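target protein:
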Amino acid sequence: MAIANAVQKGSYVFVYDGKGHQLCSISAGSGKDDGLKGYTSSTVSVKKGSYIYTYDEKGHQISSTLSR
């Protein structure tokens, strides 16, 4: 199912499909710069510490990249 929206609420990122059904929730980290950085129809990017983690629509981590 495609990602239509991703919203950060507190320390979690909630991911929704086009009908507004929640697909998953992802920890947004706890640092001042941590949290949702963006999303596409198939991925969500969340910064935690020195890394940006990419997740699929089920909340499974698919990659991590050192942040600049």
In short: The beta strands are 5-9, 12-16, 22-27, 35-39, 44-48, 51-55, 61-66. The chain has one domain: 5-66.
